[in-house]
Amino acid sequence: MAAVPGAWAVVVAAGGGSRFGGYKQFVPLCGREVVDWSLDVAKRMCSGVVLVVPPSLVSRYEARADRVVAGGDTRTASVAAGLAAVPSEAGVVVVHDAARPLASDALWQAVIGALAAGVDAAVPCVAVADTIKQRNDGGRLVTLDRERLVASQTPQAFSATALRAAHARARATGAEATDDAALVEAIGGSVAAVEGESSNLKLTRPVDLEVASALLKARAPRPEVARAWL
User: Fold this and answer.
1) How confident is the model over 83-125, as pLDDT tens digits?
2) Spans of all domains in the chain
């Protein structure tokens, strides 16, 4: 599939990786940096790519994407910085976490394509396998209905107008969110779910690199994977 005209990607790679012990998005994975896997699919699917990195690394990564900008103190601030660098004429913005290097072309196609139904956002979701419990203020646990729960992933596709409006409200109110769909929900926007991928792993701890490496090696041969293992 060719890049979607008018669609831009914001690849978020500005986090400190506190649980990982460092910048997980820049560590090696199958002979390349983690961020490069996310950038590759973004470039295939979108007309332009904005990469958001820690301020100290902007010059180091300035050749990796169409535009490279410094992130903020929070994820919401980092996405806002990336969004500000997206051209005003872009009609679709896809936000993706660099720490999810295994998101497939098909998943990107699915979230972008879902916007054709007129929704403001499309988010990949997977069913929750574990029993989820909520801890109340007294420390007691309450079991939630697993059948009603899903885990959201990235890439998440947005109408550029809706995403800009959501971030404008977040700036005005000081709102923060762990994903941008929540900001769109907060302004009353419509968010559609598409089927996510169980292999779309988010790197959180060092052991996740071993899993990601195994999953990449198990995929159908791709030139970049083959070169990495020569």
Assistant:
1) 999 999 999 999 999 999 999 999 999 999 999 999 999 999 9
2) 4-122+154-228
Looking at domain 4-122+154-228, what is its CATH homologous superfamily? Spore Coat Polysaccharide Biosynthesis Protein SpsA; Chain A (3.90.550.10)
Cβ atoms of 55 and 12 closer than 8 Å: no
- Kindly state the tokens that stand for 81: 């910085």
pLDDT along the chain (230 residues), means of 10: 87 79 87 96 98 97 97 97 97 97 97 98 96 91 94 98 98 96 98 97 92 88 50
Long-range contacts of 212-220 (CB under 8 A, 24+ apart): 212/29, 212/34, 212/101, 212/102, 213/29, 213/30, 215/102, 216/29, 216/30, 216/37, 216/101, 216/102, 217/30
- Spatial CA neighbour of 156 closest among 184, 181, 185: 181
Entry pTM: 0.91
Q: How many angstroms separate the CA atoms of 86 and 67, rounded?
A: 8
